[in-house]
Prior knowledge:
The protein is α+β, with helices and mostly antiparallel strands. It contains four helices and five strands, in the order αβαβααβββ.
Amino acid sequence: MSLSPLFTEADVIHVYTRAQALADGVLMDVSVMAREAGFKVPVAVTAAVWSDCVAWPREDAGQDEQGRLWDVLTMARLEAGRHGNLQVVPFKVLRVPRDGTTPQLTQLTLHIGPGDDAEPVITILLPGED
């Protein structure tokens, strides 16, 4: 008796790759700055994380997208280092809301998993995103 793997003959209904998500703007590639922050694998943030924690449309002194992204990546890296080999690492970042002036603590999640070719990649998400 031979056992065949589950779904061997199954039709694939839909596939949405990380590369497609990056091309569509669902994910934003932040790998260049992430390497500066100490990450060794590609890093992306969701469009929702970018909108909530990085985007800064105002010309205010002391706030810009590069600085806000650095804060997200630095806090993610520090928490990832503290939690060793976990695949999902919750972390918090203090950020000024786009429509406010008072910093607020925001919960984010770092997820490390396989990319399109099974290589390790990191995605930073808001709670409830997958």
